[in-house]
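Re-running the complex after MR caught last week's input typo. The corrected sequence lines follow. Everything else is unchanged.
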Amino acid sequence: MSIQRLRGTADILPDEAPLWRRIESAARREARLYGCREIRTPVFERTELFSRSVGETTDIVSREMYTFPDRGGRSVTLRPEGTAPVVRAYLENALHRTAREARLYYLGPIFRYEKPQAGRQRQHHQFGVEAFGDGGPAIDAEVIELLMRFYEELGMRDLSLLVNTVGCAACRPAFNGRLAAFLASRRPDICEDCRRRSDGNPLRVFDCKSAGCAAVIAEAPRAIESVCPACRVHFDGLRALLDEAGIAHTVRPELVRGIDYYTRTAFEVLAGGLGAQNAVGGGGRYDDLVESLGGPPTPAVGFGTGIERIVMVMAAQGIAAPPPDGAVVSVIAWEPEGIAAGRRALRSLRGAGIPAEMDHRGGSLRSQLRRAHRAAAAYALLVGAAECARGAARLKDMRTGEEREVPLEGIGAAMGRLAPAENRTGVPGGRRPS
RNA sequence: GUGGAUGUAGCUCAGUCCGGUUAGAGCACCUGGCUGUGGCCCAGGGGGUCGGGGGUUCAAAUCCCCUCAUCCACCCCA
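Corrected-run output:
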């Protein structure tokens, strides 16, 4: 084997692409239903966009970014998350001036230099939504509802939604201080990782899985009990709205996200079948980010969800993938007299919007029919010398085996009338007739 | 970055512990049986740097060392 794909990357092969398209079109449909418009930002940005927004001390910025100097000496970074570029584009193109409230969605690759494992790659893909300009809990609930509906549309089951509040600029510093002080007092009882965390981002200790730390953490002050009255009202409001929408959720006070810009609402959706990386999606509110990137004070809330992890959950839950792409009609000519007529039929079919193929290498009728069968074509068009001489061919239904003679003239239009449902790329009745 | 497991045909894997004739199976692929008819069956065929490099040995897929990759877990996240 010569050149291989880069570590942590994956090829999405023709057999898998239909499922990806289904997921992507569900994403676009849901986003549209909720009033979101698509935005496409570059896959690379100036490095400082991410260091300033995501946070210098986060794992993402401190050790996971694909950062390199370009030929002009600028430091550029492959986007390690979707929100900061959208905020940048929102400001740079003055979208906040044309509409007070903007709802945007994106779909595309994300890059993080991590060690791959189940559900974790160096390039993965996310569907994300960002809603700007509304600081109230109703929009948080709506964004979460969009996400849960999207999963539901794909047939995903047994998901758990975890919600938390991480406070705001007014109350978080004080809480962080109290937590840090508490952790300092218990420093001998906590693990090395947590000591490190208590210096950088003390909230992270709530994530620790070590048994020793769990006992300490149980006594630690909780953000949810320490936030300011405004944050409390927002969080209670969100929970009531989720209840109203019939969206089951669990309050998880230890839920913390690894990106610094979140304020107030933080949420995550967990699923089984993913291995240790059990989050399919997550997000939250980021009321200070737009302003910190140079815009006017603008509250915002959004989520990102990983397409690869959705694919994994769907596979684990046995959710059927769409049929593979393939030709609907296989044109077969096995005698010299039929070859040119076969090619004309091929053009006629394609002109009528019917996916059609013909094996130009030829071969016996038997072998070409076998190929058509394996390619799961719905029909075979047999252009034999005898029929060809009277301007006709035999149309064979591959599922039933029935054959009838059809005129070659206008074959595309005739097939279009015969099987209008097959005018698209899908093949009716599933694939692989047996 | 740390730890564990695994690398043999396009795919899934046997063979490795106990070194020994041309390295196997199933599936997939190609051809024929059926000279103008797919699926099932039968027969035949193509395909391999045994991840790479080095070492030990008369002899290495097999033993030793190094290296790379993949998977899984920690960490972190989608």
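None of the earlier attempt is carried over here. Chain A has 17 helices and 16 strands. Residues 17-171+227-316 of chain A form a domain with the BirA Bifunctional Protein; domain 2 fold (CATH 3.30.930.10).
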